[in-house]
């Protein structure tokens, strides 16, 4: 590592790594600082990512991405960022643990944590699932539960009727908090609302959930289900930078991930939208291009030409020598294009 970069990405999920991929390939010295963990790392299987088969785990998916960005010249550091401050020169000081770097642009890709219900619970990925759009396909014609007491839980329970005719909504002994209109919807759908709390979990030899036993002694079989207790956004750094937040706690961004503070972008689950790997990757791509538009040296504007003069041959290319060296090495190792019939 050096102590100066053009871009620092805080967070190493699909959105952050894709942002780093783009900024690095577009010629900007980039460091990714990742504390580890995250929702993608929890995945036992990868769903809904075209070109990636289901037998690829989240950790394998992320490790391949890390190796890709390193191959193009990005730095990758396992560390926790505690503080981000704007320096007198307009750049940012990013520090925490053993890391202390100065950068031109910061990308927050710190995501959120799903609020977990109280145990007993099945294992994540073996009966406890966090993404309806990723995993509903797994439960076609299977008995499914949804946990929660709010409108979102009730809505997800009704959505699951598109995939199976056996859906239970478990309140775990808490009073329902969904609206009267939602109750009217529930009354018109074949969803069984179970108010007793879960007493124990039964699992098969493969570790998958088989059934819940409830406090009243009843036993109900399930293949799996979805807890719906909300999200805890990792927005401490956003608060330090005084970024504008939405009512739900997400960071407000434009179409290219720019926040309310110049030089700061946010991507992935920390921002509004569907919490999906392909969506996160798309956000990262757009953010990377947006950062390039801000940081690239050329073309100079008319005002810059007037103040700095014309661009000379000595001024180009607009990459650091470190990035030029990485690009030359990478391109030299790349296989030569196959000869065409016209050669």
Features:
single chain, 343 residues, alpha/beta, FAD/NAD(P)-binding domain, 7-stranded mixed β-sheet, 4-stranded parallel β-sheet, Thioredoxin-disulfide reductase, FAD/NAD-bd_sf, Ferredoxin-NADP_redctase_2, flavoprotein
User: Considering DSSP H and I runs of 4 or more, what fraction of the residues is helical?
Assistant: 25-40%
Give the CA-CA distance, first to last residue. 44 Å
The CATH fourth-level homologous superfamily of the largest domain: FAD/NAD(P)-binding domain
Number of strands: 16
The fold-level CATH name of the largest domain is FAD/NAD(P)-binding domain
CATH architecture of the largest domain: 3-Layer(bba) Sandwich
CA-based shape: elongated
Q: Unreliable runs, pLDDT <50, ≥5 residues?
A: none
| Structural class by secondary-structure content | alpha/beta
Keywords: Flavoprotein, Oxidoreductase
Biased composition (Acidic residues): 304-313
Biased composition (Low complexity): 333-343
Biased composition (Basic and acidic residues): 321-332
